[in-house]
Amino acid sequence: MKKLLxxxxxxxxxxxxSQNGEKENLQTLIENFFEAxxxxxxxxxxxxxxxxxxxxxxxxxxxxxxxxxxxxxxxxLRSIASIPxxxxxxxxxxxxxxxxxxMIANVSTxxxxxxxxxxxxxxVNTFQLMKSWGEWKIIYLVDTRxxxxxx
Length: 151
Description:
There is one protein chain. The chain is α+β, with helices and mostly antiparallel strands. The protein has helices at residues 2-38, 42-47, 73-81, and strands at 49-60, 66-71, 89-93, 97-101, 104-115, 118-132, 135-145. It has a single domain, classed as Nuclear Transport Factor 2, Chain: A (Roll), CATH 3.10.450.50. Helices cover 34% and strands 44% of the residues. A hairpin with a 5-residue loop joins strand 1 (49-60) and strand 2 (66-71). 13% of the residues are buried.
């Protein structure tokens, strides 16, 4: 019985350790995504995403309604690459909430977005990822955008 308890304990420790390693890998992936974003490196940004990635945003319109918009990842890549060099932009991430469940994961990151050092908006990014062939890829990205309540 003691051997069974010891083996069970060791297996649970291994599972917990491997999930922590996965969480670190996922945080690094998201940090690298934003490094490429700030560098306007569309080739590198494309490498983080699954070919069938979906992108959506949730925002409040001028009438106060919550609206959902959908965009193509290729359009996102072109828009990032086309930002003029004279425009400084930065998305500051405030935290990481990472959940791993086998071959899928969710990473949530509250953020503040600045254009030319002025706060533009804030919100939360939520990345859904899948692990395929030993590599994590973003399969879904949704964000919220608000001009109210930003810190």
